[in-house]
Amino acid sequence: MEQANEVGPGPESRPAKAIAVVSGKGGTGKTIVAANIGTALAMMGRKVVVVDGDLGMGDLGLYLGLEKSPVTLHEVLAGEASIDQAIYEGPAGCKIVPSGLSLSGYARANPDRLRDVVKELSGRFEFVILDCGPGLSKENTIPLALVDEVMLVVNPDLICLADALRVRMMCDAIGARVGGVVVNRAGMSKAELAPREVGSMLGLDVLAVIPEDDEIRKSASLKVPLVMKKKESPAAAAHFSLAQRIAGRPGEKAPRQEAAAPNEQKKGSRRFSIFGK
Ligand code: ADP
Ligand code: MG
User: Fold this and answer.
1) Which domain holds residue 144?
2) Which residue has its alpha carbon closest to ligand 1 atom 20?
3) Whole-prediction pTM value?
């Protein structure tokens, strides 16, 4: 895929909705969710960028077939390149900022510079989706404070929830707003927690329940997001509803290609709620 540097200002001068997709435990499906909601928003005609904020183990670019990105977020965070040089064309017109794969790039990247990256992109897009690394290391905690809302992605098991609870507590401690929780890989085991139990244990709204679906693994190996590859599947439908909720249009029939609609959220405030609370 080619580099996409022609990114102008958003349809409105208001800042983007910036959302960090986070988890306590690794491998809960953050990258899958970030890539699919980014693509779904783009399919709805919205102006969106997905940023791979997992600086050490980022694989958003791999998932979307962007393995040969000459400039990545690593170089931007090292002060060696501008953000424009690291924005690539993704599926359905969704823009992608991949993370680098090299260890030396990781070592040079300064996560404190992420603040400027999110600020810059927020001025140009309607939505900035930041796919984060798991846990509470310094570099994975920085994004929590940079976004309008944090979205937790969990699998419905106790260990995963215990780790997610720690992230939620960290968010409370630093004043980051948690918009809700996405329960991913639901239906994998008879012993798993029900989505409503997950919500009440975390004290959060359940924003979406995404079923366990082998099509997700297949779409990852084909490097095409599920919402494009198999948009009628239940897991794709769950991603579409989540994207509609983020876009402030729950219940809209999806997917469809249309011009970007005016944003319905209140202008002039960074502390509005993304998820309609
Ligand atoms: P994270 O970014 O949280 O580390 P990933 O998005 O990379 O997690 O997903 C981890 C693995 O789980 C991948 O192999 C992915 O294909 C698989 N996966 C994620 N969500 C689902 C799902 N709903 N059904 C089946 N497999 C899934
Ligand atoms: Mg990931």
Assistant:
1) 17-246
2) 29
3) 0.88
